[in-house]
Amino acid sequence: MTTTTAQIISTLAEGKLTVEVAQTELPEPKGSQILVKMEAAPINPSDLAVLTGPADLAGAEYSPGRFVADMPEPFYSGQKARHGMRLPVGNEGAGEVVAAGDDEYAQSLIGQRVACVPGTAYSEYCIADAMLSLPLGELSSEQGASAFVNPMTALGFVETARAAGQNAIIHTAAASNLGQMLLKICQEDDIALVNIVRKSEQADMLRDMGATHVVNSADEDFFSQLCAAIEETDAYFGFDPIGGGQMTDTCFRAMEQVAARNMSEYSRYGSDQAKKMFIYGRLDLGPTILTPAYGFGWTLSGWLLTPFLQQAGMETVLRMRQRVLEGLTTTFASSYKRKVNLEEMLTREAVLEYSQMKTGEKYLVTP
Amino acid sequence: MTTTTAQIISTLAEGKLTVEVAQTELPEPKGSQILVKMEAAPINPSDLAVLTGPADLAGAEYSPGRFVADMPEPFYSGQKARHGMRLPVGNEGAGEVVAAGDDEYAQSLIGQRVACVPGTAYSEYCIADAMLSLPLGELSSEQGASAFVNPMTALGFVETARAAGQNAIIHTAAASNLGQMLLKICQEDDIALVNIVRKSEQADMLRDMGATHVVNSADEDFFSQLCAAIEETDAYFGFDPIGGGQMTDTCFRAMEQVAARNMSEYSRYGSDQAKKMFIYGRLDLGPTILTPAYGFGWTLSGWLLTPFLQQAGMETVLRMRQRVLEGLTTTFASSYKRKVNLEEMLTREAVLEYSQMKTGEKYLVTP
């Protein structure tokens, strides 16, 4: 028995991005698959890559349940692999399990509310994997909607740092939802965290949450603040969701200056302090700029949740998930600025707002 | 008993770089130290960082045994740690051991010709570490002068690749002295090598040496040549001495395009093929530009010989050194365009030539 569902579909073709509510037939769930009636799904920055990307949203044509926007170069050609493909959107969400494949565990979820990672979350109904789903018990779908991407990413940073023998982390977008989770995790796990924010209100908010090292990139003495925080914490390991511009470069420069200060002898090749930064998002689609100002003892990597989880192994992933479930209303709680249904999420007003990815202005889709 | 020696000294102060032949007193060698009467020392790109850097060499004032050049910003301020310091120059060279500390091995070297890594190689006499020196036997100092930096770096690339489970390497300056050594090593060790060159003469030279995959960045279809070579070799691991500009970015883009072609399913996050590049030099002091065109499965690192050797451990280093010694007139042979003494190396004509770091135009200092 198939299920008909309304679903947000994003298509890139002939220089234009079309995003629309479309009707799709879902096959019957098989094996460990579950069919979930979706109740809530967040719009995360990682969803926007497919949902909007660098399209000209201000100049787009909006009609009920649909918008069509120009996709500028080099971004149109750069996404060649998806030209003409009809892509569903929405990494994660929560809802009620209404059917399941014949796998025993999947069957046991029928009638329960679960958080899930279908990749098609902006839909009335989704097919998801029972193994990646989290039964929510008494919690609401709104409380469980963001149980995967941000919590597992923030925990993943701490796991990554620990695996590298690090007890201190720099985070360059510390006021974000994810940044606040990371702060709470680091407080619980006694890891030093250097929080970089862009506004003094954000600095105040984090300090109110108990953050010790908060550095505002809008301040004139930002660089010396950052050096001081690195000196105090020994944070030579950082995570950056901005990607474009010079934020990772600035962190490397500050790390090197602090390390060089503590050297007994001058070296033409820079300090021998290993410095590592990870880019885990692309809030800025411009190029990443690295200046030759910190020798050769540095590493810059992309960081993505799925390969991290694959590498981490089942035991680590289960431990992380259990911790998320226990902290879903505290450490891992998310807040939303506005709720929209599938049609409302494609209006000009909504698109122009959530595509800004402003801190504290997250949208929740309630299909 | 101290030894008086003429020595090249580089000093950065008050916006100016002064390089001169100066007289220095060397202390008596102690422990495992040896005193070497230097006969030959190459000018490597790694020496130029201290010797000339981005100073205005064309506009400099030259007098016998000395030049004074403006050091432009931001490079002057960027090298704050060395302002006012009198730095000797010259990583490596070869000569005759004339005295030694009381260490037994050091004593046994007296009267022998050795390759050594004193860091002060542009001098009549140097203090070096016997443990890092290589007895040359019947070989001349000219044959042994470049026994350390290029051979150990080229071997280090192969060791690094092997440790990461790689059987193919991209090298972005393949026609250089080091590039030719790497080609021979890869031929001996059956590792696929993608050679990127800038001129068709260089491509011809490498093909004459038996190179299979040679790609010319000056060709219009460079990018598709590079993709084809990656497809044939599975080279997702590369080394780049240029640093500035977009060469590493280009390699990452080509790797990703090849990996994406071979994917069965479209992924918004790019391929899951791990891509790794190392920057081991700064022939271009401009910023490194990374575009957001290859997902998050990439790592860019600095690579430097000394920390690599420290990490590799004594056994690996001894094995590498033995191989260098055996191949010093074949695999690891260096050639020089011109020989200069200490005064001649500071003339306008010489400085302007060797500071270009042109392929095949290496200088040898014979104090």
From TrEMBL, chains A, B:
Q: Name one Pfam family in it.
A: ADH_N
Q: Which InterPro entries match?
A: ADH-like_N, ER, GroES-like_sf, NAD(P)-bd_dom_sf
Q: Which GO terms describe its molecular function?
A: NADPH binding; oxidoreductase activity, acting on NAD(P)H
Domain spans labelled Enoyl reductase (ER): 15-325
Report the superkingdom from the record.
Answer: Bacteria
- The keyword NADP belongs to this UniProt entry's keyword annotation: yes
Phosphoprotein as a keyword of this entry, yes or no, is: no
Q: Which UniProt keywords apply?
A: NADP, Oxidoreductase
Name the chain's protein: NADH oxidase
What organism is this sequence from?
Answer: Halioglobus japonicus
